[in-house]
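Work package 3, deliverable 3.1, input record:
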Amino acid sequence: MIFTEEMFARHMRPINGSAIREIFKLLAKPGMISFAGGNPSNTALEPQVIAGLAGEVLEQYGTALLQYGATDGFNPFRESAAEFLGTCGVNCTAEDILPTQGGTQAFDVLLKALVDPGDAMLCESPTFLGAIQAMREYNAKLISMPTDENGVIVEAAEELIKQYHPKLMYVIPTFQNPTGITLSLERRKALAALASKYGVVIAEDDPYRDLRYSGEELPSIQSFDEEGWVVYMSSFSKYVAPGLRVGAAAIKNPLLRRKMVIGKQSADTHSPLLNQAIVDAYLRKGMMPGHLARICGDYREQLNAMLDGFKFFPEGTVHTVPQGGLFVWAALPEGMDAMKVFERAVENNVAFVPGTHFYPDGGHLNTLRLNFSMSDIPTINRGMERLGEVIRAEG
Amino acid sequence: MIFTEEMFARHMRPINGSAIREIFKLLAKPGMISFAGGNPSNTALEPQVIAGLAGEVLEQYGTALLQYGATDGFNPFRESAAEFLGTCGVNCTAEDILPTQGGTQAFDVLLKALVDPGDAMLCESPTFLGAIQAMREYNAKLISMPTDENGVIVEAAEELIKQYHPKLMYVIPTFQNPTGITLSLERRKALAALASKYGVVIAEDDPYRDLRYSGEELPSIQSFDEEGWVVYMSSFSKYVAPGLRVGAAAIKNPLLRRKMVIGKQSADTHSPLLNQAIVDAYLRKGMMPGHLARICGDYREQLNAMLDGFKFFPEGTVHTVPQGGLFVWAALPEGMDAMKVFERAVENNVAFVPGTHFYPDGGHLNTLRLNFSMSDIPTINRGMERLGEVIRAEG
């Protein structure tokens, strides 16, 4: 017999991997200026610090760190993660914390716990590509919520809830990927109220929260939820190191937490203890505030350089002015095609991600996402000027 | 609204976690002799070695080890894993290797890639509890294959394939969990031929292969497969350290490997680079052969002590005599109930896992699984004597 595409599970057949990954292959070209990724800056990563902590925790815990661990997580890390999340508007104790493989896995096991094929799910549009792929793999029916400069429009979301009876709503409230937009305080309260009123689980994906360069910290949607409808998903990828794959979800509903733990049992038995212990030590030693202050100082200047670089773009371009995170979102003058611009830009050694990929229903061909965290200021200046030239040549 | 069990995905509702996990909670009692687990011995774990390697690889690779990595895996580890698996009858190159979170995740992403709700799957009976749970979470219809002292009975498996047209067959060929039985060479060839004849993907779960204490090494089922129907799943949990969560699957079919990579993208983006690099360094430095020789020497004596301990069991008890692995399987005289024995045994500070849990269809109440890797020889002697007394008192 010959193995054919028909052997795959029906919902997996049309999924052929993220468009972004194809883009990333182009970035290996020497001299390429890339605004395409979503990585932290290499200068934000501390291999010597991590090596020191690895040695310390292996000395402290010995074989316990190398044995099988609990799916529920490594308890010292659950404690320090709960304290870290609690410092800024997440209502949780160590008991509520499920350590995960980055934020990605929290969403995966939440989908596994809740979604039957065909179930409706609400999400922002545009939204995180990885989340779109994950929802499709569980065969969810994606419903796009309208958004504006303050995030999800609550009244529109309520109408969609009444119409589609979704089980789940996926939201990135702070410095959203891809737009950089932050959901306002009032809307955070209102979404928590909707969740409770209609019985919708909110997946609050908040990995950029502590990369704030201006404006005031906001409490999470989860902090306004008194009934356990909001699953708060955080990650240490953007704060400490993505390569360690350490995330933490806060799940106040014990029924739901238990079912997610069961899903994680079958997914990977448990998260690696060494990685949880390294991030735990990082937090307990009080290294996070100083580290965040340093990297936010750098990212703030990089963001400002990028915003300044829009002077090279054609008139009629609009863009967001994020208060934090890793991305700026732009719309070129109506009628322009960012996919075509992308091809020309790559020929000219500058890259970004065309915005259409972030829309569950496609379209919006004039939009694009720009990352500033991975380039230093001279590179951002050069890259924005070059990109501006390419766009104007296409316009 | 109130969150109720009805909110869960239909297939997840009846799954309430492994019975073994409840058993493990009883083991914290002081003085308990546990033959219940499946962990490596603490004396097999090397925290100082791992700490040294962590420091070295972080020095060698620097920030590259802390950035996002490829879902396909860390290439140096893919190379060394391919070489390690190839030394004993697995046909693979680095390209075929997908690093995973232990062997668990390889099976999870394989199920995600292939299984539509209701699809039939063949498995041994008894089989690994975690695999039963995983298959149920994907709503597969489990079909038990008859086995004997040489593993799966091929003719019976063929009849079941004709009857149920399964997409997938799950087999643990070497020192099976829970029985310790090894699939014979002829049957390995025959299963590979069945896979190809009928178009059935075989998930060959082989995490104990290198824990051999007697007998001859056997080539994998995968090595007899020329068309890419067999996915070979290995893990470094039993050889280096389960807490690191490093596994490696060899997948020769590029279509299937690609779809598993896509499933893994949404599951956890990628496996942590530090952990892959540690195991890579362990392999490249040639530490594995000496380490395996040392731990196999210890485990061999522990196994022999356990086999000797059956002299304390009532007449009519039968048990396997494994050539490796971590488990011995026993059947008490017909009519005895290992669940009842278990309760009395725990009162007397000795524990095991009742065998019924390993059968997809339950039953077989007189069977039990005993682990010898986690107890030293005096403890095994004491524990088997005590367990023998409890059983005879119940008999």
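Chain B touches chain A through 86 residues (CB under 8 Å).
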